[in-house]
Specification:
The structure holds 2 protein chains of 2 kinds. By secondary structure, chain A is an all-alpha fold. Chain A contains 1 helix and no strands. Helix content of chain B is about 65%, strand content about 0%. Classes of the chains: A mainly alpha, B mainly alpha. At the A-B interface, helix 1 of A face helix 6, helix 7 and helix 8 of B.
Chain lengths: ~55, ~450
Amino acid sequence: MLPFSFEWVWDMGHIVFHGGLWYALNIIGLGMTWCIGKAIYDTIKGKGAHDHH
Amino acid sequence: MDAALIPKGVKRCPMWQFLLALGVVGAVLAWGVYAMLLCWIKGLNQTNMNDYYGFALWIWADLAVIAVGGGAFFTGFLRYVIGKNELKNIINYAVLIGFICYSSALLILAIDVGQPLRNWFIFWHANIHSMLTEVAFCLSCYFGVLCIEYIPLILENRQIDKVPFFHNLSHNLHETMALFAATGAFLSFFHQGSLGGVAGVMFGRPFAFREHILVWPYTFFLFTWSAAAYGPCFTLLVTWITEKITRKKLVKDNVIELLAKISGWMILSYIIVKGIDTSYWANITAKSMGLSLHDFYGRNWFYGYWMLFTELVICGVVPAVILITSHGRKTAWLRVTAITLGVVGVCLNRWVMVLQIMATPVMTFDKFVLYYPSWQEVATTILPVAYGIILILISYRYLPIFPQEAELNPIDTNEPVSRETAIDADAGTDSTDTAADMAPA
């Protein structure tokens, strides 16, 4: 049992199945974190204040 | 009234027309919501599903919108991973259509499960031997990706873009979009495939069962392939409809023709493989179970040979031949005919793989059982269509969906500027800028 999967068992099926899910979730999460973090950094640096499309 | 929100260099219809359209479609939406509430409050007895039809109109609609929504992942894959830069002029609309299709699929599922408050069970109590669990995982994640792809469009609204943080976020999302597009293609490959896999693994239903490659039945690959092939047809069809309604050219012909050509070759390759699969299934797989093609197609007028012919030839070979020939895809009426047939074809394929499977008898004493959806099922299936039209109406009015629109439809400098024409409204008022100032550079 893991906090995010109540019926977790350490077998190949669970590792592959959930591994794929967490792989995708990690990419999405890290990608968004990077984009938001960089946007905050850029905004603090004053970028984007005058170069509107 | 809302001129400050409309993208620069383009014209939109008067506000009253926009509100009237929203009102008409909103009435249909309200009808669907009423039926949805009936299903949630009173239960699935509001449907005509029964012991024969555990999967019915909703699941067909689910599979169909996911298939036609495949245009988003495949166009994104072509644009960001393969590098077909011309498609940048239609990718926004493909993403919007994909977003509508996938959110619709999730909405239909939320009605179908009957108890949406327990949606989280599928993640908490995941059955790792179920194709549908994989579908749920990938569908949820891919919807997240589509949201991420749609957000920059919203952030590009003239007023939102003025906020530096949103401007920077939009810019960063564009910069990293290839990563999200590749993830979306990965997720789509598996959930489109698993939807086909659901049918292919049913060894108790010879109409559906297919041989396997490792754990994946052939239908797994055919579903992914067909979504990539026919999805762009739906994108092109909705673009064409939008152009007709707005009476504007929104995307240049070279972009349309490129996507049509790729779709045509994908359909042709799919139809060849589908034909081989059907032939193998009819002559070897079904025969090994003591059945022939006649048992599936020769015993009921509705599910007759005509359906197989329509799916494979009229809605498969014909659009493929039209779209792969230069003359075919350059001739507007032929191209529109082909993409319409393509959309009908993939929807028909999903109908066969959901409803005909249920209709076909599996016991010697059984008969073909037909199913007629209740009005509640019809209303809740039309609901996502109304929702999609509303989202398109709003997005088209306020977001820069079509990058080539301003270039293709320059504003007439002799025409008086209407209140709905996009103007530089930094001051928040209708300025007296001339139309020439608004024309694209």
